[in-house]
Write a structure and sequence with these properties.
Elements (H helix, E strand, L loop, with lengths): L5 E7 L3 H12 L8 E7 L6 H12 L3 E5 L5 H11 L4 E4 L4 E3 L3 H11 L4 E10 L2 H9 L25 E4 H7 L12 H11 L3 E13 L4 H21 L3 H6 L4 H11 L2 H11 L10 H24 L5
Parallel strand pairs: 1-2, 1-4, 2-3, 6-8
Antiparallel strand pairs: 4-7, 5-8, 6-7
């Protein structure tokens, strides 16, 4: 196994339908087949994932390994993948993210060129359907990346593990993912924060592209935002650093604006009605703006709930 350069860690739970589209894109990479392995860390799915994964393993041999376990969240599943990884470089993605053909080669090349300790974050594009994926894959002008192509470095705030790679030794040195982050949000940012504090530089590669196929409706995203607010307080209590509060929006101004909106239920309900409209995804429109305000309200609701459940933070 000495030829292995990279271990791909894919946490999953009840995503068989997605995996059937995602795994072929990971198996059909420009990086030589003997240079990487794929580890599926399954949190005991009940949708037939186990049978499908074992079929893939049988056909692919040692290129794919199935690692089921009673993981209490994505952090624990990823940590199991790190522990099992046989390559010096670990690449993180998710079970609903489709890879471009050169994705792994780009990550491996960035690390090979680096003169210092680095992590690499690629360009993760959002797609609504497999049809949208095909359109963005074949027509780059349709893409809406988060970062400009000229950007070369990122802060820990953008260490998103749908498309990120780190040397295994650096992960082990900082303690890997914090498994106390069992809810939605921030387990990846918190790891990025620790990596950056340890001296790891976070690089951005705009050509290391993959496609996140998980459209989220308004109601589901509201729930996610509240959970992310709870995770923000956990993050800050672990790292009482002003930059954490400032970057994650846990400021006196955001708390005050939340209180003002809470005191105006009619306005708040109007924002949520507009935000839940099918027109909301269209940027720079009133429904879109209303949706962002509603999301922020629920995010800060999560922050306040977590603050009330524990000691206040300064």
């Amino acid at each position: 196994m000495s030829a292995l350069e990279l271990s791909v860690v894919v946490p999953t739970y009840n995503r068989r339908e997605n995996l059937e589209a995602v795994l072929p894109t990971l198996l059909e990479q420009s990086l030589p087949a003997n240079a990487y392995e794929i580890i599926i860390a399954d949190s005991m799915s009940t949708d037939g994932t186990a049978g499908y994964a074992r079929d893939v393993v049988a056909k692919s041999g040692e290129r794919v390994r199935y690692l089921p376990g009673r993981y209490a969240g994505r952090a624990a599943a990823r940590n199991a993948g790190i522990a099992s990884a046989r390559a010096p470089l670990v690449f993180f993605t998710d079970a609903d993210i489709l890879a471009s053909p050169t994705l792994l080669e780009r990550h491996a090349a960035e690390h090979a060129r680096a003169q210092a300790r680095v992590a690499v974050v690629g360009c993760e594009l959002q797609v609504r359907s497999l049809e949208d994926y095909a359109a963005q894959r074949d027509h780059p002008t349709l893409r809406k990346p988060l970062h400009p192509a000229t950007r070369r470095t990122l802060s820990w705030l953008y260490f998103l593990t749908g498309n990120a790679s780190v040397r295994r030794d650096d992960l082990l040195a900082v303690g890997c993912f914090d498994e106390a982050f069992t809810g939605y949000g921030h387990e990846d940012l918190e790891l990025g924060y620790r990596l950056a504090r340890s001296g790891v530089r976070i690089l951005y590669d705009a050509e290391a592209v993959n496609y996140h196929w998980h459209p989220v409706g308004f109601t589901e995203q509201v729930g996610r935002m509240e959970l992310a607010g709870v995770s923000t307080v956990r993050f800050y209590r672990k790292h009482p650093d002003f930059s954490v509060k400032a970057n994650l929006g846990m400021t006196p101004l955001s708390l005050w604006l939340h209180s003002a909106l809470r005191a105006a239920p009619a306005l708040r309900h109007a924002l949520e009605r507009a935000g839940s409209s099918e027109e909301a995804p269209r940027k720079n429109t009133w429904p879109y703006i209303a949706r962002q305000i509603a999301y922020q309200y629920h995010y800060v609701s999560g922050i306040k709930r977590a603050l009330q459940e524990g000691a206040p933070v300064s």
